[in-house]
């Protein structure tokens, strides 16, 4: 969570410096002289390879968490960007149980519009009302661009309807 502003800045092409959490680098073993037994032979402990596994494992875990957090952030952002379009499209189509298109399908289930790709993969859950945020699962920038284009088409359609309605009132 602490890196989200930096991730946003990096996404926008800005250089960022991520803060590093300090790791405990103290050595819990005793001094060098105590690692040798009384006849100055190395102990069994000294014969084990000295590999810094714990810090590396922690870095892998931290990277996985950051990647997961970043993915969740982008999925939520993408879902929030397309949700108004999905809702508007559904309403303009008289709120059916299912809408099937060339690339996507929308299915209404218990107040949630489930968006799936043509291959059946679920990519978003969009609540029919604005009280609950939408959830993205496998959305990408291409999906967002398609829905922004749909929004443009819907806006043009509504504008034409309004023009026709106003012309009808003028007569």
Mean pLDDT: 78
Largest sheet: 5 strands, antiparallel
Oligomer: single chain
Rg is 28 Å
Number of separate structural domains:
1
Number of strands: 5
Number of distinct helices: 4
Low-confidence segments, given as residue ranges, are 22-49
Pairing-aware structural class of the strands and helices?
A: alpha+beta
Arrangement of strands in the largest sheet: 1-2-3-4-5
List keywords for this structure.
5 strands; elongated; 4 helices; 171 residues; alpha+beta; five-stranded antiparallel beta sheet
What does this structure look like?
With 171 residues, the chain is of the alpha+beta class. The protein has one domain. It has four helices and five strands; from the N terminus they run αααβββββα. Strands 1-2-3-4-5 form a five-stranded antiparallel beta sheet, covered by helices on one side. A hairpin with a 2-residue loop joins strand 2 (104-109) and strand 3. Mean pLDDT is 78; it is low at 22-49.
Offer a concise description of the structure.
The chain is of the alpha+beta class. The protein has helices at 4-11, 44-47, 53-92, 141-170; strands at 98-100, 104-109, 112-117, 122-127, 135-136.
Furnish the topology, listing elements before pairings.
Blueprint: H1 4-11, H2 44-47, H3 53-92, E1 98-100, E2 104-109, E3 112-117, E4 122-127, E5 135-136, H4 141-170
Antiparallel strand pairs: 1-2, 2-3, 3-4, 4-5
Helix pairs in contact: 3-4
């Amino acid at each position: 969570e602490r890196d989200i502003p930096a991730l946003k800045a990096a996404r926008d092409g800005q250089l960022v410096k991520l803060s590093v959490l300090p790791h405990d680098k103290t050595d819990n073993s005793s001094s060098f002289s105590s690692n040798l037994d009384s006849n100055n032979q190395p102990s069994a402990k000294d014969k084990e390879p000295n590999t810094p596994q714990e810090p590396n494992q922690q870095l892998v875990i931290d990277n996985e968490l950051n990647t997961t957090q970043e993915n969740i952030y982008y999925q939520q952002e993408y879902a929030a960007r397309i949700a108004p379009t999905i809702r508007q499209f559904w309403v303009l189509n008289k709120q059916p149980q299912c809408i099937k298109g060339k690339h996507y399908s929308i299915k209404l289930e218990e107040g949630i519009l489930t968006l799936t790709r043509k291959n059946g993969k679920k990519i978003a859950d969009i609540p029919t009302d604005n009280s609950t945020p939408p959830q993205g699962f496998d959305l990408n920038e291409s999906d967002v661009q398609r829905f922004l284009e749909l929004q443009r088409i819907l806006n043009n359609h509504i504008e034409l309807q309004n023009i026709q309605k106003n012309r009808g009132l003028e007569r």
